[in-house]
Amino acid sequence: MVKMREQWTTSLAFILAAAGSAVGLGNIWRFSYVTGTNGGAAFVLIYLLAIILIGYPLVMTEISIGRKTQKNPIGAFWAMAPNTPWWLIGAMGVSAGFVILSFYSIVAGWSLAYIFKSLSGFTSDMDFAGTFVGHITSVWPPIIWHAIFIGLTLAIISSGVVNGIQRWVKILMPSLFIILLILVLRSITLEGSASGISFYLSPRFGDVTSQTFLAAIGQAFFTLSLGMGAMITYGSYLKKSDPVPTNAGWVVGLDTVVAILAGFAIFPAVFALGFDPAAGPGLAFITLPAVFAELPAGSLFGFLFFLLLAVAALTSAISLLEVIVAWLVDEKGWSRSSAAVFMGIAIFLMGIPCTLGYNLLGNISFLGMDILDTYDFVASDILLPLGGMMTAIFAGYVWTSRKACKEMNTPECVIFVGTWYGFLIRYVVPVPIAVIMIVGLYQKFTG
Ligand code: PFF
After folding, report:
1. What pLDDT, on a 0 to 100 scale, did the predictor assign at position 412?
2. What is the DSSP letter of 205?
3. Does a structural domain hold residue 3?
């Protein structure tokens, strides 16, 4: 018996699910600290260029590959180019997803822990940096929260695309947006917020190096869930009648708006409260509680914020796990729930070294990075851009942009999207990625 592939019931459901995948820790936690450590506005500008010129065409491409083949990333490339090595792009994507979810879930676990910390109240006399460091350097709590987060993710995935993913993102995504707006308003009205706004908005091009470009494309790929087949997998559940460019536009637009707003929630507050914007991965966890302490009913906001951060992480994590689960279900004939449980356990184990890197394995470092940052670097700055570049080459030259465009299903395709898309996907996407990766990685490795 052939089982029908599930489909999103409406375009909106797809947009919310794909935006749910895109909007996550990457927009709030990662975007803010990467912006902070890469000099602020100049980084943001390069990041925005990468989103428009590289991210948007690739989101359209991945969705189209998924919809055309109705398969997981490995199966999709195999179906489009049988008996050729192109399926390796899919395999690299599934592996990147595995690495990302293992560290992502550790950070998501920090957010879960902070939901409970906020309940006991944030007060202005607290040592916010000390609380954060105390939490991540403890041995068991981060591992337990990591396990709980993976458990939640696999529970949703086991319920399927419509009853699990679609049902939850419809509630969770709008709530996230509202809370974020409230936080922005509070942050920009704090006394002393102006220098934070200027750090965030006035570019200092003198600070730009090859590392800034590498970090900007890494961030663009990470935040749009690109280069690892998440959009291929979600596209495979998209109805044939839905226009890809419009849907992709919504996903990219929503993701970018959330990231930019998160910057407005964080940087004005960082400066107003005298923190260092280049503090690194702890930025959101240290500064935001300090903002909440300044708010009337701050603990309530803190509670809501960390709840929603965890939720945003959850809607991204389900897309990460879905890629791997879809592969086991489509290609290996596993049931959804056994695939989810098996992979959940594997990812849980793979994540443990990341948190031990802050205590028992604290002496291990790679190019000056701890274990969690190393996982992130390998996945986001190497595997994702490489996967994206190969996908663009595949779509532009093997599948051909004309056929890709046909799959996108829009009457304007041939005139507008077609012309631009062909140019972008063949030249503008792959060439800068190759140059930035070669120069950026060479300098990173040679110091
Ligand atoms: N886009 C997610 C975020 O910004 O948090 C992270 C992510 C999800 C990356 C899914 C890759 C992916 F396939």
Report:
1. 59
2. G
3. no
pTM for this prediction: 0.93
CA 241 to ligand 1 centroid distance, Å: 26
Q: What is the pLDDT of residues 352-403, one digit of tens each?
A: 999 999 999 999 999 889 999 999 999 998 999 999 999 999 999 999 988 8
Q: Are 19 and 255 spatial neighbours (Cβ–Cβ below 8 Å)? A: yes
Please indicate whether residue 233, judged by its CB atom, sits closer than 6 Å to ligand 1.
Answer: no
Residue 261 has pLDDT above 80, yes or no: yes
223 lines ligand 1 (CB under 6 A): yes
Q: Are 94 and 228 in contact (CB under 8 A)?
A: yes
Task: Name the residue at shortest CA distance from atom 9 of ligand 1.
Answer: 225
Domain that holds residue 338: 11-446
pLDDT digits (tens, 9 = 90+) for 308-318: 789 889 989 98
Q: Which residue is associated with the tokens 């592969």?
A: 327
Please check whether residue 439 lies inside any domain of the structure. yes
* Ligand 1 atom nearest 31 alpha carbon: 4
Residue type, 169: V
Q: Which amino acid is at 278?
A: A
Instruction: Read off the CATH number of the domain in which 168 is found.
Output: 1.10.4160.10
The answer to whether the CB of 193 falls within 8 A of the CB of 268 is yes
Q: Which run of H or E residues covers position 129?
A: helix 128-137
Is 211 inside any structural domain?
yes
What is the count of structural domains for the chain? Answer: 1
Distance 336 CA to ligand 1 centre (A): 21
Q: Which residues contact 344 (CB under 8 A, 6 or more apart)?
A: 150, 151, 153, 154, 321
**What separation in Å is there between the alpha carbon of 225 and the centre of ligand 1?**
4
Asked if residue 100 has its Cβ within 6 Å of ligand 1, the reply is yes
pLDDT tens-digit series, residues 303-356: 888 987 898 899 899 899 989 999 999 999 999 899 999 999 999 999 999 999
User: What's the distance, CA 409 to chain centroid?
Assistant: 26
Ligand 1 pocket, 353 CB below 6 A?
Answer: no
Ligand 1 touching residue 27 (CB < 6 A): yes
Q: Which atom of ligand 1 is nearest to the CA of 224?
A: 1
Does 228 sit in the ligand 1 pocket, CB within 6 Å?
A: yes
Q: Which atom of ligand 1 is nearest to the CA of 231?
A: 13
**CA 146, 136, 97, 115 torsion: positive or negative?**
positive
Q: Does ligand 1 lie within 6 Å of residue 26's CB atom? A: yes
CA 100: distance to chain centroid? 9
In a domain, 379, yes or no: yes
